[in-house]
Amino acid sequence: MAQAAFWKADWFIGLSVLLMLLLVGLVLLAAKRLGKMGGNKEKQPAESAEAKRMLGLAFHGQGQLDKAFDKFRECPMSEGLMENIYNLALDYERQRQFKKSETVFRYLSAHNPRFRDLPARLGAKLDGEVAMGAHEPVEMPRLGHYVLEKELGKGAMGVVYLGRDSQNNRLAAIKTMALAQAFDVDELVEVKQRFFREAETVARLDHPNIVSIYDAGEANGLAYIAMAFLPGGDLVPQTKPAGLLPLTTVLSIIARVADALDYAHAQHVVHRDIKPANIMYEPLTDQVKVTDFGIARITDSSRTKAGMVLGTPAYMSPEQITGKKIDGRSDLYSLGVMLYQMCCGQPPFTGDSLARLMFKITSEAPTDILSINPALPAELVAVISKSLSKTVEGRYQRGATMAAGLRACQEKLPTAVAGLPQTEKVTR
Amino acid sequence: MKLADALQMVALTDPGRSRSHNEDAVFADAALGIAVLADGMGGYSAGEVASGMATTVLASNFAQYMPTHQVGNGPASGVAEAMERIAHEVSVANLAIYNAAKGQPHYAGMATTLVIAWFYDNRMVVGHIGDSRLYLQRGNAFEQLTRDHSLLQEQLDSGMISVEEARHSQNKNLVTRGLGVGPDVETEIHDYELQAGDIVLLCSDGLTDMVEDAEISLILKAQGGDLTLAAEHLVQLANDNGGRDNISVILVKVMGEYASPRGWWQKLLARLK
């Protein structure tokens, strides 16, 4: 009996020792955890000001505006940061959180009350509801001797404006390029030289089917090229099945572009970016003008790699795709792609990936155009396939010969064959 | 061994000889087992914002994730988990950059390449986008583990041009994938086993355009004992050869095993350590 009791006590003591140990272990673990957290907190301030700004931008990007503002406030103020915070305030405004946006604008104003339109914003708010609509007519922005009237669109490197020459009241399309933003300081001098050299070369081109350049200059940190403003639009809609033009019109347009290219190539100017978006067409007066000569050359060397990711090489010649040196015959190939598209409403090559598309352009025959538009005359099909030859030697060597080939087709054309397969009319 | 003891990491970035801006960004933390390298694109200062955002967002999100998660209980599930986590974190960073570019007009069009390596359980998961690369030096073998997402690589793969033609191609630096280009991004992710003595190199094209692979390998073999020296030497060499772009390198050396603790008692031990 006594022995049994002793055993029982022993068991009890053993268990309690074990429990005690466990408890100590847990306490130690908790202590360790706490210690770790303390350590982490000490690490946090090491997060650099730049990292904070990046996180701020990330929060802003994720739509967490409050968290973004908190992060931005932890950073020392700089010109770049002012810009970031200003945009944050605009987003608050877009979300109609006007209290918040005002707080942010005031925060900016404390650092630099003259930043952007802060005086106007905060001034107006201070005076209460003064004069909504009784705004002073805003003075039109100017670029050099041009008064900018409106934005026409976005170009390869910047905004395109409609401007009026204050000297002779002539309208002009003004392509601006923020060179200083797109290039490094050390490259800038060279890039600017190239820009003006290129603009000068292009300005010397004088042809009825090439958009005339008025002048090029630099103002407010923007380089610009002013050129004749054309009513009408580019040829992009006319390459879609729904917008195809009558065949005879297509041939006359492409022939005139080929003429323009022949003229430019003779002056050693290669366009490099012939595509429907760069041909202006005005149906009322039947005017055709090639635009953006040599612009591709200026933007080409830009090291903004991201642009390429988005671009499509659909109009590029095989030699252009493989990165070889190109001459005018590459332009004539690109014109061939356009011709193909304007005759049937589809591009000669399609691919579900960039690699596939590039492979087809360099190594496969285009989709048989007669399978898309069986109504095309054989002479025209021959012109198209000659201009789409993979080898430079197999193509038209000059724009003039291509134009002649197209005009010969045009003469043989029976009247009123439209560019679309005429199944509807046939079945009727 | 704890990660911080099992891995040695050195990160170095240099503007190079002809650029005033450094659009590359690097992050490496042996205790987390994370190395990230990004090469920004887009004019003005936007490129450095894109790459800076990529490294900062990934570093900060992984720093939050790691302490609460233990990857690698059973190799298969660990690998899948790590790959999924990388894909997720990269897409978070992608969206942040993409939206920032939309919300801040002066950053429009910014993007960045990315290569990220996550070391855990004697393994390495590598995710990459664009033409920043990851190499592995094991003994005498020096191997490029990532395949560039670039126009040039696609042309090489499809047999459109030869290696010789590629060397003279005019579109050397055009990438076909970028972080921040669109709302979605496809990250290429692979998983590798590592051994003690392995040296992993993450680098931007500023290094590989200027220095031949064989030369890089030689330096890693000769100076692998001192990673800082090796990294400085690589950057120096790229600069000596012209330094036409920003140069960034991250070197990671595997000093010993870093298997994830298995079983509850190992985990407890690991926590108490």
Task: List its salient traits.
heterodimer; A: 428 residues; alpha+beta; Serine Threonine Protein Phosphatase 5, Tetratricopeptide repeat; Phosphorylase Kinase, domain 1; Transferase(Phosphotransferase), domain 1; 6-stranded antiparallel β-sheet; 17 helices; 51% helix; extended; B: 273 residues; Phosphatase 2c, domain 1; 5-stranded antiparallel β-sheet; 11 strands; globular
The 3D shape of chain A can be described as: extended
Low-pLDDT windows of residues of chain A: 37-45, 126-138, 300-311, 417-428
Query: Structural class given helices, strands, pairing of chain A?
Result: alpha+beta
Largest sheet of chain A: 6 strands, antiparallel
Give the CATH superfamily of the largest domain in chain A: Transferase(Phosphotransferase) domain 1
Mean pLDDT of chain B: 88
Number of separate strands of chain A: 9
The total tally of domains of chain A equals: 3
Notes on the protein architecture:
The complex is a heterodimer of chains A (428) and B (273). Chain A has 428 residues and is an alpha+beta fold. Chain A has 3 domains: 81 residues, Serine Threonine Protein Phosphatase 5, Tetratricopeptide repeat (Alpha Horseshoe); 87 residues, Phosphorylase Kinase, domain 1 (2-Layer Sandwich), CATH 3.30.200.20; 195 residues, Transferase(Phosphotransferase) domain 1 (Transferase(Phosphotransferase), domain 1), CATH 1.10.510. In chain A, 51% of the residues lie in helices and 11% in strands. Chain A has a 6-stranded antiparallel beta sheet with strand order 1-2-3-4-6-5. The longest helix of chain A has 42 residues. Chain A starts with a helix and ends with a helix. In chain B, helix 2 runs antiparallel to helix 3 and helix 7 runs antiparallel to helix 8. Chain B is globular, with a radius of gyration of 18 Å. In chain B, 38% of the residues lie in helices and 25% in strands. With 273 residues, chain B is an alpha+beta fold. The longest helix of chain B has 29 residues. Chain B has a single domain, classed as Phosphatase 2c, domain 1, CATH 3.60.40.10. In chain B, strands 2, 3, 4, 5, 6 and 9 form a 6-stranded antiparallel beta sheet that branches. Chain B has a 5-stranded antiparallel beta sheet with strand order 1-11-10-7-8. Classes of the chains: A alpha+beta (428), B alpha+beta (273). The interface between A and B is large, with 49 and 56 residues.
